[in-house]
User: Fold Thioredoxin from Halococcus salifodinae DSM 8989.
Amino acid sequence: MTADDTDTERTGATVDTGSDDNDRADPDAEALLDALIDGGVVAVDPETSTVATTAEFEDTRAVYHDTYADASAERFHESVAEVFGLDSAGAAAEQVDELGVTREEFVAYLAIDAHLDRSPSTATLARMARVVSELRPGTPVPDAVVELDDGSYERFVSSHDRAIVTVWKHHCDPCEAMKDDLDEILAAIPDEVAVGGLDGEDCPEFRRAIGIDAAPALALFTDGELREGFTGRATPDRVAAACTEVYEDGDGA
Assistant:
């Protein structure tokens, strides 16, 4: 799933995750998690005990993700060499292959280092990166709308005469821009219209059914039937115009 942008030196001998003479002993798993929580990198849901990365950390990670996710192998290896003080990109490539370092782990390593107030040792950062790269981020759906998924959206739209489902994703500049305008966007929607939201990357059934393949997006329903859908950053004026067309001019028909 894509983002619709219409209208978005640390040194060391190797990339090794083990301790060196200057490192303290690696913290155990619980201490490692506590450090990530204290640093605002992850949070634990008090109801489900689910561990997820925080929205604030995801903002930091997005910067590095945009830089390295689609970078060439040469650029990736050059960056690894620079960060870990290796002699060359070739040497970095050998270390990456030998240790199985992924781009996701490298991005997480850099993002954690940037996000924490105090930088841990290289070994601890590497362990943190491995943990964080395996965690799912929290939902990108803003709190102001009802969170939905593939198992609940049909019930939501069919149980309201008029409903709008918004679509969001992580690492999405136009999504973040829409969240900045969310109060004004919601104010532009008639009071009788129920508003929900879902994580587009986690809801393939919704995307297939509605024909939406990018975020952000809005889908307007009446009596459970899709009446209009569009992708790209939605301004308050655009949302107001769509609501007028579907719910007033069209009278829900």
About this structure: Residues 145 and 196 are 5 Å apart (CA to CA). The chain has two domains: 9-133, 146-249. The beta strands are 2-3, 42-44, 51-53, 146-147, 162-168, 194-199, 214-215, 217-222, 225-231.
